[in-house]
Write a sequence for this structure.
């Protein structure tokens, strides 16, 4: 059966390549509706959507989709292998190629999913085949196929799926016929990719998405999964045809638990804190460090982000300065924090002179340190690149990038002072090290300290080349400066733009990005308002006409 479904697909990777390579050759599905959003630019008179590449599902999206589509809880995409990253995110359309090896993974996953989904058949088949097998199969194909492809099926697709069902029925039984339909659908480009044909070009050069395509744009942006029944109903009723209706759906969707998962996925990739799972520390210096502690830190960061955005003020200043975190008694004991913490994770209010939001979470402090000492370079680079959107070049080829040797008679600040003296290093390190020194009250495993090698910690620092330049003393003061920075606010919005649209920004996006920045500032840095605003830009509402979108 495996070979038969691959032949029907023309081999998964080939069929996908053909679809992506020439979208104009594919017929529109039955039931296309329109017109879509009002032809009104977010600023100026000319709509400028920028590029809109066809986007393949990530592992995160695949697992969520098969869960919502068929109730499969096994996370089959975990076996697909990591995606290539671009600009810090793994959902960049240009990087998500489909190799023959991945196509085989899709095939194997589809077989397993179809077997689990049809055991018993009543889980997915809405009728009794004993009363009419063919009629029941057609009912299943119509219901399942439209949900899997996230739009009504074409007549040709319905006929092809029915032919697959008949083949399986003749070869084995009714269940095998249904399994072949599921397997083929899950390997189709219409499932794996978001193919946006749009409505017929009106000569403007701008393509309006139909309701089904807009429903998928909303669901994969806000949930990382397929549309729910409300979105499907809205698409069917042509109720996603204005910016106002799209905004209404976005606000509804942000109240769904799946939005929390999506927001968590963005921050996990933006800050790359999953690396905590691979961190090792010098066992002679940190004998109580273990991978288990790292996982507790990861849970701390995830819980803090979710709470700050969805259960607290929900703005960027809170994310950067909140004097609390989440931990259990084991993590609190590791940090040496005298707090009332139980066996389960919960909010712990911390000393506001020592702790401030994201910058003092254990994951970020620990992954941006070396195995045996802190790293003002890595910590300063974190602030520079992730929060100010500056790109630090790699060290020159004639420079030794290794950390200085530990000297029991010196502090980290003293050991890294050479960077500010060496002309080959000074140019870049003047932008990183003076920021990183502000983190020195935290050791390499995120424990607060006031001394190093019996010497008092000097955590004074300096911000340059930003809109909040000036001195600060300690990471709490640094966090407060960053929380007032319009540069940081614009950087955060830009990171969301890249993640939400699966691509980097272009010159055509200048207007949309400027409008987003203005909306974000107007809201006081409200993160949910920023997410809603991302559904109102030209880049989200339209795509360019012609060939490949």
């Amino acid at each position: 059966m495996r070979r038969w479904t691959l032949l029907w697909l023309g081999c998964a990777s080939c069929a996908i390549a053909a679809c992506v390579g020439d979208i104009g050759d594919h017929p529109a599905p039955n039931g296309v509706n329109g017109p879509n959003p009002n032809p009104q630019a977010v600023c100026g008179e000319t709509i400028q959507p920028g590029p809109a590449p066809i986007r393949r599902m990530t592992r995160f999206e695949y697992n969520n989709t098969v869960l919502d589509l068929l109730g499969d809880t096994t996370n089959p995409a975990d076996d697909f292998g990591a995606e290539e990253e671009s600009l810090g995110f793994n959902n960049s359309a240009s990087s998500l190629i489909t190799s023959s090896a991945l196509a085989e993974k899709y095939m194997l996953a589809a077989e397993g999913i179809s077997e689990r989904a049809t055991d018993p058949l009543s889980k997915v088949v809405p009728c009794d085949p004993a009363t009419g097998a063919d009629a029941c199969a057609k009912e299943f194909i119509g219901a399942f196929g439209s949900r899997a492809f996230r739009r009504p099926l074409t007549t040709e697709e319905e006929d092809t799926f029915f032919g697959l069902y008949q083949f399986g029925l003749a070869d084995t039984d009714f269940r095998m016929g249904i399994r072949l339909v599921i397997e083929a659908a899950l390997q189709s480009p219409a499932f794996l990719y978001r193919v946006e044909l749009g409505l017929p070009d009106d000569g403007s050069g701008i393509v309006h998405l139909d309701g089904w395509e807009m429903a998928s744009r909303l669901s994969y942006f806000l949930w990382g999964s397929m549309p729910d029944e409300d979105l499907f109903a809205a698409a069917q009723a042509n109720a996603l045809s204005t910016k106002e209706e799209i905004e209404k759906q976005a606000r509804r969707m942000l109240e769904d638990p799946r939005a929390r998962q999506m927001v968590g996925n963005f921050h996990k990739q933006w800050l790359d804190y999953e690396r905590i799972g691979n961190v090792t520390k010098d066992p002679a210096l940190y004998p109580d460090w273990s991978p288990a502690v790292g996982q507790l830190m990861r849970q701390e960061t995830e819980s803090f982000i979710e709470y700050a955005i969805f259960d607290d003020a929900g703005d960027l200043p809170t994310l950067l300065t909140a004097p609390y975190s989440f931990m259990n008694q084991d993590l609190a004991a590791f940090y040496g924090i005298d707090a009332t913490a139980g066996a389960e994770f919960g909010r712990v209010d911390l000393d506001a002179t020592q702790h401030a939001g994201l910058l003092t979470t254990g994951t970020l402090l620990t992954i941006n340190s070396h195995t045996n000492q802190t790293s003002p370079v890595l910590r300063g680079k974190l602030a520079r690149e992730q929060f100010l959107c500056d790109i630090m070049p790699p060290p020159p080829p004639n420079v030794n990038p290794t950390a200085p040797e530990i000297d029991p008679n010196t502090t980290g600040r003293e050991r890294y002072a050479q960077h500010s003296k060496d002309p080959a290093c000074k140019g870049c390190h003047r932008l990183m090290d003076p920021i990183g020194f502000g983190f020195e009250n935290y050791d390499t495993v995120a424990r607060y300290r006031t001394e190093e090698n019996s010497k008092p910690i000097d955590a004074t620092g300096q911000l340059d080349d930003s809109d909040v330049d000036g001195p600060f003393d300690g990471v709490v003061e640094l966090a407060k400066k960053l929380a007032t920075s319009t540069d940081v606010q614009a950087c955060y919005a830009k990171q969301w733009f890249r993640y939400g649209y699966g691509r980097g920004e272009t010159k055509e996006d200048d207007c949309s990005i400027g409008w987003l920045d203005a909306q974000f500032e107007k809201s006081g840095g409200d993160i949910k308002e920023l997410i809603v605003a991302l559904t109102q830009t030209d880049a989200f509402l339209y795509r360019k006409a012609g060939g490949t979108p």
In short: Residues 2-255 form one domain. The chain has two domains: 2-255, 285-395+407-483. The beta strands are 55-56, 193-194, 206-208, 324-327, 346-349, 451-452, 455-456, 460-463, 470-473, 542-544.
